[in-house]
Design goal:
Layout lengths: L21 E3 L5 E3 H5 L14 E2 L31 E4 L3 H8 L3 H5 L13 H16 L9 E5 L4 E8 L8 E8 L8 H15 L5 E6 L4 H9 L3 E8 L3 E9 L4
Parallel strand pairs: 7-8
Antiparallel strand pairs: 1-2, 1-3, 4-5, 5-6, 6-7, 8-10, 9-10
Helix pairs in contact: 2-4
Length: 252
C-alpha cells in the first residue's frame, strides 16, 4: 500500500492524503507542489528520481487506511506524544544564516519556529561543518542534517540526518540531537526511526552506523533497542572518544 506521508519533506507543508498537490519519487519521498516544481525542478534530492503527482486516497477510505505518520504508535516511536514529525531539509540560505549564527535571518527562511538552541554551541559547529561539506560535495546536500519539525507545533525541535551519502561499502552514519526543552518525549526515537526507514528503502545502503560518547546512556539505550551492535571505538577530534554501533540492513 502506498505511503501517504502527511507533510512535505522540504518545507513541512501539510499534504492531506485525500487532496492533490503532493509529489513523490519511487521511494515515496514526498514534497509539495511548490517545492517539487520549484527549486527541486521535478527531481528527488534524496535519490535523484523523478517526482510525480501522488494519487489521492478517497476520504471514505481514510478511517480504515489512514495516511502514513510519524506518531505515537507501535511502528513509529510509541513515546512520541505530540503529533507527527517531519525531517525537513535546510535551504542553502537558511543553512548559511545558521552557520553564521544569525537566528533572525534563519527564521525568515523557514515556515516554522526556531529557538535559540539552533544557533547555540550544540548546533553551530554542525551547521558550519555541513555548509563546508556541501561546498565540497553539492550532491551530498540531500543526505545531511535536517530539522526535526513537530508539525502539530509548527516548530523545529531538533536536528537529524546522515553524515553523508553511502560510502563504497554501503554504509551511512546517523546523527540526531533534540533541543533540551523537548527531550524525554520520544522525538529522538521517532527521528531515528525515520532515518532507518529511509535507509531500508534505499538499496544502496547496507549498514547504518551511530557513534556515541561513552557517557551518553540515553543514546546507547536507543540504538540498543533498534538492533545496533557495538563494533568498536574511535577518537573524534571534536567530540573525543566515541563508541561505534552498527545495524546491518541486508535481509532485515
Amino acid at each position: 500500500m502506498l505511503k501517504m506521508k502527511p507533510t512535505c519533506e522540504r518545507c513541512a507543508a501539510a499534504l492531506p492524503a485525500d487532496r492533490t498537490g503532493a509529489f513523490i519519487c519511487s521511494f515515496e519521498c514526498t514534497f509539495c507542489e511548490p517545492c517539487a516544481g520549484g527549486e527541486l525542478a521535478g527531481t528527488c534530492p534524496n535519490c535523484a528520481g523523478a517526482l510525480l503527482p501522488r494519487p489521492t486516497r478517497a476520504a471514505a477510505r481514510l478511517d480504515r487506511f489512514p495516511p502514513e505518520s510519524v506518531m505515537a504508535s507501535e511502528a513509529t516511536g510509541r513515546d512520541l506524544a505530540m503529533g507527527a514529525i517531519s525531517l525537513v531539509q535546510l535551504s542553502p540560505e537558511g543553512l548559511a544564516a545558521l552557520a553564521r549564527g544569525d537566528l533572525q535571518a534563519a527564521r525568515r527562511c523557514f515556515p516554522f519556529l526556531l529557538s535559540d538552541y539552533f544557533v547555540g554551541p550544540e548546533c553551530l559547529g554542525t551547521w558550519r561543518l555541513r555548509e563546508a561539506q556541501i561546498a565540497r560535495e553539492p550532491e551530498a546536500a540531500g543526505w545531511l542534517t535536517r530539522f526535526i519539525v513537530d508539525t502539530s507545533l509548527v516548530a523545529a525541535i531538533g536536528r537529524a540526518g546522515f553524515h553523508g551519502p553511502p560510502d563504497a561499502e554501503g554504509r551511512v552514519e546517523v546523527g540526531y540531537s533534540v533541543d533540551p526543552a523537548f527531550r524525554r518525549r520520544g522525538y529522538a526515537r521517532a527521528a531515528l526511526l525515520v532515518l532507518l526507514d529511509w535507509a531500508r528503502s534505499d538499496p544502496s545502503i547496507q549498514t547504518v552506523r551511530a557513534s556515541i560518547a561513552p557517557g551518553n546512556l540515553a543514546s546507547r539505550r536507543l540504538v540498543d533497542a533498534h538492533g545496533f551492535i557495538e563494533v568498536g571505538e574511535q577518537w573524534d577530534d571534536e567530540d573525543g572518544l566515541e563508541m561505534i554501533f552498527e545495524v546491518n540492513l541486508v535481509g532485515f
